[in-house]
Amino acid sequence: MSNTPPYRPLSSYYFFYFAALGAFVPYWSVYLEQLDYSASEIGELMAIFMLGKLVAPIIWGWIVDYNGQRLAWIQRASWLSILSILPILWFSAASYWIMFLSLGLLGFFWNASLPQYEALTLNHLGEQKARYPHIRLWGSLGFIIAIAGVSLIIKYDSITTLPVIVLGLLFLTWVMTGLVKDKEHELCTSDEQGLLKLLATPRIAGLLIASALHTMAHGAYYTFYSIYLADIGYTPIAIGALWSLGVFAEIILFLVLHKIIKHFDITMLFIISLVLALIRWLALAVITNSTTTLILVQLLHAASYGLFHATAIQQIHQWFPKRLQGMGQALYAGLSFGLGGALGSLLSGYLWHSTSPMLTFSVMAGCSVLAIIFAIVFMRKPQKNAIQPTI
């Protein structure tokens, strides 16, 4: 029996999952603005979507670590995310509360599946964990293709078709879960005290807090960047190209990251990603309406998302024992992309029109400074080559 990991099935899921995200993240706030929602309402609606990343991964992680049927719960979450977006289709001019409820449910179920799929992928890879970036880059490719496709639709048709596009991509994501087999993992026995002790260790606490602050710093970018570019005169095609450039840079990084990780301390690489993110937000705060600056800022996405995420999940995979792998990835996703993302969206929504984009990005840079401080203070103990499995 072959021990070769199922690279193609694993990659297919990432492709469509992040294609759906590529249609949603850059354009949903533009869609909401088209429906005449205010900046503060857009911030609230995107925040409730992000908040699902806090609650759902932890609940799903606890269930999977005790139940063991990881793929089945991934499939359930994928199917329920499809059902969650239907009210927006049925009520084309959705009221605030219908939109709020639908995005809350969508955020809960959609965000429940990815951390478990990350754990499933790493379990399939086994000793070949350095190949993770080669699988994950297909998600980045799907993100780029979706951005380009939606930008063309906006130019030649209407952004009102966006919910249908997202629904179709979510359906294909669910279909892809049928192409991969589950991978047995060690079940969790009652070990809440072990988990609490683990979370109390400085390096894990520092990683989770720094990750939350780092993702919070992305709040203005994910919620208002497309609106910001449109306000300063960029066309939908140009906006899509800038988003795609950032993800393209991320793909290039993923292609070479397995070589970089072998030669550098994983914690140092994590901290470098936080520093480069700080530079990114400071550039947006200080220099406005410069195409050169915007291009350089987008290239830094390779570090602020790609390098950050790859080094974070591999540290989680190393530092959490096998019986708590699902919970470890869930806590990382929940506290960073959930709590951090929700707070970032909410804060940027209240700041965007009441102050200015420049001040909003300055506040985001402040969050990055705090992330760097927590990482340096609590994660300074060297951790060599985090791709080695933890028993």
What does this entry look like structurally?
This protein is an all-alpha fold. It has a single domain, classed as Growth Hormone, Chain: A (Up-down Bundle). 79% of the residues lie in helices and 0% in strands. Helix 4 (70-90) packs antiparallel against helix 7 (162-176), helix 9 (202-216) runs parallel beside helix 15 (325-352) and helix 14 (301-319) runs antiparallel to helix 15 (325-352). The radius of gyration is 20 Å and the shape is globular. The protein starts with 6 loop residues before the first helix and ends in a 13-residue tail after the last helix. Mean pLDDT is 84; it is low at 382-391.
Descriptive terms for the model:
Growth Hormone, Chain: A, disordered C terminus, 391 residues, 79% helix, mainly alpha
Task: Give a quick rundown of the structure.
The chain contains 16 helices and no strands.
Helical/strand content category = mainly alpha
Helix content: over 70%
Low-confidence stretches: 382-391
Specify the CATH class: Mainly Alpha
Shape: globular
The fold-level CATH name is: Growth Hormone, Chain: A
What portion of the residues fall into strands of 2 or more residues?
under 5%
Tally of individual domains:
1
Main beta-sheet annotation = none
The named CATH superfamily: MFS general substrate transporter like domains
Measured on Cα atoms, how large is the radius of gyration?
20 Å
Tally the beta strands. Answer: 0
What is the quaternary state of this protein?
single chain
Total DSSP helices: 16
Termini separation: 24 Å
Listing every helix as H and every strand as E from the N terminus to the C terminus, the arrangement reads HHHHHHHHHHHHHHHH
If classified by CATH, what would the architecture be? Up-down Bundle
Mean pLDDT: 84
